[in-house]
Every structure is written in C-alpha cells, then in structure tokens.
From TrEMBL:
Residues reported in the UniProt entry to bind ATP: 5-9, 133-141
Protein name: 5-formyltetrahydrofolate cyclo-ligase
Catalyzed reactions: (6S)-5-formyl-5,6,7,8-tetrahydrofolate + ATP = (6R)-5,10-methenyltetrahydrofolate + ADP + phosphate
Organism: Enterococcus hirae
Enzyme class per UniProt: ligase
Amino acid sequence: MSHIKEKLRKLGIENLQKIARSEQKQQKEQKIYQQLFQSNEWQQAKVVGLTMANEIEVATTPIIEKAWEEGKTILVPKTLPERQMCFFKIDPDTRFERTAFGVLEPLSDHSFSPDAIDLLIVPGVVYHQNGYRIGFGGGYYDRYLANYPNQTCSLVFQEQINNQWVPESFDKKVQHLFIDK
C-alpha cells in the first residue's frame, strides 16, 4: 500500500508546486480562508494549532494574524525525538528556527497538551474526500492525532483531492476539509 501512497505523495507535491507558481494561488487561498473564518470550528476555538506553512502549502500567516486580531492563542508544533511533536505558543515576537526538513519551528518553551488545543489545522499533501490524508511522510500528525480529542480541519486546494487510494488502519481522519470551491 505504501508504494501507492509514495507515488501519490510525489504527484501531490508536484501539484502543490504548480499551484505555488500559479497566479491563482492567492485567490484560491482567499476562498479557503473565508470558509475557515466563517466556520463554527474557527469561531468557537480559543486555541488554534497549525504549522508555519512552506511556500507550496496554503499560507498560514494570514490565519495567524486573524487569530491574534480575534484574541485567539496560536500554537505551532516542534518535532521531538522518536517522531513525536509538541505544540508551543507563539506571539508576534517569537523567533523561529528552520529544521533539517525546512520547517519553521518556534523557539519557545510554553508547550500545551493536546486537549488544550480547540482546533488543529492539519497539513497534508493529498486528501481523500472522506477526510483521510497523505502527509509529507514523517507520520508526526498521525501519531499526534491518535491522542488528540478535539476539532480538526485541513486547508485544501481542489487539486489535492484524490480518492484513488484506500486509507490504512493507522490513518487518522480529519473532521473538516475547507476546499477552494
């Protein structure tokens, strides 16, 4: 099965790179933000967990700024040994460091337990319409989601939807996909 996922992940990354180079990326993002900000999940959340997106993903900086405007707490993950991760509070003064994977992680000591996060925005490369996802391949989110009790969502470009694969037992479903349609 993982051979199919590997292939889909590679295609998914190529798709994301195409979108990143297109002039439509910002328009597509605006549609996704609009859905997110109007959702009950967003409006009820006081604490939001998300990653610092790389250039091929839906940009998360506008989400962080909107959250701060609305008085929400933003948490960003740091990877830990044994493919675990933990979420840390950030503010406008937080400094970040780039990991070997090219991901920005906060230089922060204020960590939160999974149940303190009201809404977790889960990244991914390919999505099944039922909410399953193929991530970037580290398995960090599948492991984290196994013990995460609250709301989850993902920000998805239409081009990332692909139903030609079967989720595996350890795949964790995302509750809500916000898609640019």
